[in-house]
Write a sequence for this structure.
């Protein structure tokens, strides 16, 4: 959540007014685009922040894929070791119903990441379609779409998501994913719209139009391929937002609470007064994982920011 | 002025959109959840509540969507948000009214505090770039900004409330005091608000600090800052009047935009602290499928956030002379 | 206009970066600026002229650092507004303490930046930007006095007084530049450094501003270091012109002398890079190649790869600035063609003139090419 705040300011390079935000996003996006085209895409990996960020992300992905193989306890299995602190038998202790916390954390990685990435993909897809359409066509189409984008940006997302999730007849990770996507596409759409508007004026678009390429192809083949770096950055942000929203919704009990995921663990923990019973081992691990993952993604984005805005780089490296 | 008028119109449109969304969502859901809800609640809830629900969602009447919409709008204008199920027979408006003031005070104070502290820290970090202050604070706060509000709340509550017993565990004020404007009550209220407020401030502060730091670094490279230094002005004046005054502008816009997120996180924080604000009520609403209440809270928060956005725009106009006139 | 010096730069060098991969942005530059003189500093982008100016004003930002040299400033005697005579002791600019630097800044040396839109704080009005420097340096001045001074300055530069409370974005480009000049004059400095003050303006406004600067100099007696890449501007306005290339001074001469008889092949190339309005049609020669990457400056004379007249010594020995004729100490050139010790070939037609070589007793005959230069300036 705070990440989105930081991004809001990090994008602004000038001190122009609200109405000129698009110019600043366009500049940043332009720089990102050029960055992507540089042969030294490897310069991406020279940044310490990006390395740390991607490292953390990679760790969790590997954990999600291979983790359950190494865990021998069934995360859902009940046992008589109720609410016991970390020990040799249960590395992270047990829950109210004797379930092994460590196994749950490892297993939950999968679901959490899956939903996060799914929402990221879906919402980014929406941003791309909406943003590029608005940016390319301009005029009335753009005015209308911009209005929709801005409205969705300003309406508070979490309460809306809660209302949406509450009404869906089926509860589970999939509806949660859909609902979060419906509220999380607006920021990416705005950035992409700005960039598309500035790219539209470039010659290669004119050339494509003159040679009779279909509009669809121009937008999605020509322009999009030049914006891939921004799309990637927007994807990372959306994933952060998705994970937070997902965890928030699960914490409220709006997902399928029988599925193992970090958010659901926190739901059960709070519901069972884990805190008041002193069972800190139930609460700390899932939250810590969320924080680490979020931090990893944030560092990656921070790193990309520094690459595109030379003024943010360390002065001694000039 | 034109700028403000345009923004006002936009917010009114956004409000209308929120209201209409509120209206449409239940009616667009597959399988009519209201019917399911009614069926589910049969026998568990006062039948009058169910009748009220039917009435509210027009399940009885054969009226068209449009006339239902008009009805809905006119109800809103009269302040009628429907009847709550969880707190039956109280109306939604009453229930919200109970928690609204607590949430507004908590979130309002926290958000503003967080903004100012974060901005100040960001200014100093950028000015003293490369110092220990900057190099430790930035990654630290990045890490903090990645922590979900409510998890931080849990940890803070556990350590400071449960283990160390320095702060109360629940509530907005000590229950053996009479609510009112008396000294002890206010003190108790502040005492109870410290932990939740601190959680919100720490979690959201990172965003402002990093944003301000980045904006300052960009601003410090501008020619007018160089000129201010060349003029031999005091360091403080250069930092504040020339650099920070310009760097803060995108931050104000950002503040407005991310207020929605801050409010969302604050709601969840309230739940952890059992703080009797809208967050807590929201949890009750979700757990008892109290749709009218859920929707009422959404609307209330939307209004508050839109209002805050508008205030931020006003601040912006005051601070940036460039938007004051249309060229 | 007295002839005493106001600024002496001695062997100034500025590097970017640390010792290992350091780039010599300014390499051993020395010159003297006289009181009331307009000193033009010309060169292509990356020649180091702005770095030089910022080094003198102590406005360099990391990773730039002064590695060598001295800058001496000689303030003129005049009274500050509080009646006390200001100190006239020579000032070692590079050695000033932070407090001393702050007092020195703007009062003695002010700067006119290139783009007024970028140099003016967008959120403060012109009045504030003029008076805050008055408040910082003249604490005894009353608010009314400051306001009057602001109005006086606006009048000096030709801005209508009702613009006093305008914001930068409300002014036209020309007016903004005048406002910057007004701010620069606020404390009656001895020296104003102007970094490409007219580059961002159209030519009509450019001419007005140049005329303005000249008139103000005549009236108030300050000196100017005028930096630009556009040599034609300097030929209009400067008394003395210096040409920089790859961080080094390659030629310095009086305005007319430089125009009529450029000595350095680079100067010659620059002068022949823009067409004249009058006179016979010429072949534009331009200068083949491009300025060197400062990380890999050619050995010997930095210009030698692009020079039509380079010979043996040029690739091995770096030429130093030398006076060509004792009667004209301000005319100096760093080129082996003029150094008999290096064994140069005959001076090419283009560069030869009456007093071409040191110690050359027989004046070279008047060549055809000399007539081309005698047409009016533009």
């Amino acid at each position: 959540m705070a990440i989105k705040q930081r991004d809001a300011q990090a994008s602004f390079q000038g001190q122009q007014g609200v109405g000129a935000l698009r110019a600043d996003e366009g500049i940043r996006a332009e720089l990102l685009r050029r960055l992507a085209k540089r042969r030294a895409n490897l310069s991406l990996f020279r940044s310490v922040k990006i390395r740390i960020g991607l490292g953390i992300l990679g760790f969790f992905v590997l954990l999600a894929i291979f983790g359950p193989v190494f865990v021998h306890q069934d995360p859902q299995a009940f046992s008589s070791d109720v609410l016991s602190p970390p020990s040799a038998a249960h590395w992270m202790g047990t829950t109210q119903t004797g379930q092994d916390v460590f196994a749950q954390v490892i297993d939950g990685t999968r679901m959490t990441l899956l939903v996060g990435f799914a929402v990221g993909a879906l919402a980014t897809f929406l941003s791309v379609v909406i943003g590029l359409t608005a940016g390319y066509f301009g005029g009335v189409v753009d005015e209308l779409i911009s209005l929709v984008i801005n409205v969705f940006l300003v309406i508070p997302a979490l309460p809306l998501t809660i209302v949406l999730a509450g009404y869906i007849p089926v509860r589970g990770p999939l509806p949660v994913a859909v609902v979060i996507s419906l509220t999380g596409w607006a920021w990416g759409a705005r950035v992409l719209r700005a960039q598309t508007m500035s790219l539209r004026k470039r010659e290669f678009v004119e050339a494509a139009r003159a040679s009779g390429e279909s509009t669809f192809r121009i937008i999605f083949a020509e322009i999009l391929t030049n914006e891939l770096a921004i799309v990637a950055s927007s994807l990372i942000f959306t994933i952060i937002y998705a994970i937070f929203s997902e965890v928030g919704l699960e914490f409220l009990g709006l997902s399928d609470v029988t599925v193992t995921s970090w958010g659901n663990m926190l739901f059960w923990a709070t519901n069972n007064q884990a805190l008041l019973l002193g069972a800190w081992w139930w609460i700390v691990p899932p939250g810590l994982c969320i924080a680490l993952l979020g931090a990893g993604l944030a560092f990656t984005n921070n790193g990309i920011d520094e690459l595109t805005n030379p003024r943010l780089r360390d002065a001694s490296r000039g | 002025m034109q700028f403000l008028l345009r923004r006002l119109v936009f917010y009114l449109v956004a409000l209308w959109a929120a209201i209409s969304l509120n209206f449409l969502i239940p009616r667009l859901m597959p399988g009519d959840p209201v019917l399911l809800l009614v069926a589910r609640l049969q026998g568990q809830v006062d039948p009058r509540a169910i009748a009220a629900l039917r009435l509210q969602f027009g399940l009885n009447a054969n009226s068209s969507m449009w006339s239902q919409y008009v009805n809905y709008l006119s109800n809103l204008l009269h302040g009628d948000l429907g009847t709550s199920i969880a707190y039956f027979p109280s109306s939604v408006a009453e229930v919200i009214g109970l928690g609204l003031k607590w949430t507004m005070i908590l979130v309002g104070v926290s958000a503003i505090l967080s903004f100012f502290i974060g901005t100040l820290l960001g200014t100093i970090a950028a000015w003293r770039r490369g110092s220990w202050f900057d190099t430790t604070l930035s990654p630290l706060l990045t890490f903090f900004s990645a922590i979900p509000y409510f998890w931080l709340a849990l940890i803070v509550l556990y350590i400071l409330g449960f283990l160390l017993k320095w702060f109360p565990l629940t509530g907005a004020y000590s229950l053996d005091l009479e609510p009112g404007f008396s000294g002890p009550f206010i003190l108790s209220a502040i005492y109870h608000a410290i932990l939740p407020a601190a959680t919100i401030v720490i979690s959201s502060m990172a965003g402002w600090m990093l944003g301000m730091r980045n904006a300052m670094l960009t601003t410090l490279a501008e020619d007018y800052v160089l000129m201010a230094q060349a003029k031999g002005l005091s360091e403080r004046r250069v930092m504040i009047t020339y650099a920070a005054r310009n760097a803060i502008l995108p931050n104000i816009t950002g503040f407005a935009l991310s207020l929605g997120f801050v409010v969302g996180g604050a709601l969840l924080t309230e739940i952890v602290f059992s703080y009797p604000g809208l967050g807590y009520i929201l949890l009750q609403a979700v757990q008892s499928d109290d749709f009218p209440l859920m929707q009422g809270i959404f609307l209330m928060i939307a209004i508050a956030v839109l209002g805050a956005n508008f205030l931020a725009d006003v601040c912006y106009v005051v601070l940036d002379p460039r938007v004051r006139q249309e060229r | 206009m007295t002839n005493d010096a106001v600024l002496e730069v001695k062997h100034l060098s500025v590097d970017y970066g640390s010792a290992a991969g350091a780039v010599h942005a300014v390499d051993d530059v020395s010159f003297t600026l006289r009181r009331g003189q307009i000193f033009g500093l010309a060169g292509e982008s990356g020649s180091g002229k702005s770095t030089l100016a910022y080094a003198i004003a102590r406005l360099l930002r990391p990773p730039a650092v002064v590695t060598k040299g001295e800058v001496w400033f000689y303030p003129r005697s005049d009274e500050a507004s509080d009646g006390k005579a200001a100190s006239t002791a020579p000032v070692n600019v590079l050695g000033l303490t932070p407090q001393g630097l702050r007092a020195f800044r703007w009062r003695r040396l002010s700067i006119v930046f290139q783009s007024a839109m970028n140099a003016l704080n967008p959120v403060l009005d012109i009045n504030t930007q003029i008076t805050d420097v008055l408040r910082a340096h003249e604490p005894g001045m009353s608010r009314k006095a400051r306001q009057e001074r602001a109005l006086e300055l606006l009048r000096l530069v030709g801005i209508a007084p009702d613009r006093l409370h305008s914001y930068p974005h409300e002014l036209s480009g020309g007016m903004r530049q005048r406002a910057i000049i007004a701010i620069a004059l606020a404390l009656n400095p001895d020296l104003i450094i102007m970094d490409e003050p007219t580059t961002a303006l159209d030519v009509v406004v450019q001419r007005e501003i140049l005329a303005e600067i000249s008139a103000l100099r005549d009236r108030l007696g300050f000196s100017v270091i005028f930096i630009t890449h556009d040599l034609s501007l300097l030929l209009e306005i400067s008394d003395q012109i210096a040409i920089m290339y790859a961080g080094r001074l390659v030629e310095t001469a009086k305005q007319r002398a430089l125009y009529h008889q450029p000595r350095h092949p680079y100067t010659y190339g620059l002068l022949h890079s823009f067409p004249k309005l009058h006179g016979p049609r010429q072949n534009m020669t331009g200068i083949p190649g491009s300025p060197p990457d400062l990380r890999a400056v050619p050995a010997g004379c930095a210009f030698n790869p692009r020079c039509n007249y380079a010979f043996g010594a040029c690739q091995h020995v770096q030429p130093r600035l030398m006076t060509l004729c004792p009667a004209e100490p301000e005319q100096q050139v760093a080129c082996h063609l003029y150094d008999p010790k290096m064994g140069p070939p005959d001076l090419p037609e283009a560069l030869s003139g009456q007093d071409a070589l040191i110690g050359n007793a027989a004046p070279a005959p008047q060549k055809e090419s000399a007539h081309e230069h005698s047409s009016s300036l533009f």
Q: What stands out?
A: Chain B touches chain A through 94 residues (CB under 8 Å). The two ends of chain B are 13 Å apart (CA to CA). Chain B has a mean pLDDT of 82.
